[in-house]
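Question: I have long wanted to understand how a fold can be written as tokens. Here is the record:
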Amino acid sequence: MSDSDHPCEFDALLVLSFGGPEGMDDVMPFLDNVFRGLRVGAETREKIAARYALYDGVSPIAAETRALVSAIKDNLTAAGVHLPVYLGNRNWKPMLADTVQRMRDDGIRRALVFVTSTFSSYSGCRKYREDLYEASRLLDNAPDFAKLRMGYNHPGFINAVADRCNDVFKQLTDSERAATPLLFTAHSLPNSMASGCDYLAQLQESCRLVAETLGHSKWELVFQSNNASYGGEKWLEPDIFDAIRQRHAEGCQQLVVMPIGFLCDHMEVVLDLDVDAAQLAAELGVQLLRAKTVGVHPAFVGMIGELVAERLNSDLQRRVLGQRGLMPDRCRPGCCPSGRGGPLKPALCGSDPLEPA
């Protein structure tokens, strides 16, 4: 399970994602996977399941992730990079453990890993690395894995987000555009988790870079999806609903919302923004315009292709914007702890001396 890196020696790409149900029979088993090991009671699970029932238990993330995998395959093929691309999910089919076994059976020895999360946090980085360890540890001759760097400040990601925002701003007149705040949203985190990683700083940098690309100075980073909070701990703020109320009080008639923290639509994006936030805005008389997630935007898919190419050819220039510089290929020791205390769990693709070699 070692993850030493040698350019030009990879024979597959694994897309590692969150997963989502595709019918009501999937919802409770899916939620059991999501909340395994967490203090989330039956009442909370039932409430969340009821929200999934509004869409017959079908989360958009499943189909959108498959579309992304297909777009990545096409991009790599067009670039002359002939790597098989596998999909493995944390919480629903195809489950990561099954995918890793299939990769082993297919003869894969060393695989690059693209995690469908652009910002560093326990949920978006280290937990996936723990998942890789668990999926590999009992499997004889499991492939070695090497994670691609985070692309939050890559021009491909920034341009894709800006383009999605522009698609919405085009619906407004020039004067309306100048007066309309742009609210970037991301998944809220418990403060204890956020304090141990660069999640907030990376989000602020990405938002700033997108706003500069757009030439739009009226922007704010806000948070959503803290409806799964437990234990009474404070989570990152401001909340999207408070931000809508505040902008309404300031006299805003339109708001553009861009879920920058999500690469494709989750059920949380749909319910939090397209249902709950839209309802609040309508009650206040505010027009809420929601930008699409980056999904299969060509610039974003091209970025993934670049991240693969730079690992296959160490002579390629690595592109980055802003002031924070390049993310490393291997996560630094102790990065992105859960915030719940206790020793770190074993994980792959990092530099921690306690991690498997």
User: Anything to note?
Assistant: The longest strand covers residues 12-17. Strands lie at 12-17, 85-89, 110-115, 144-147, 182-187, 219-224, 254-258, 287-290.
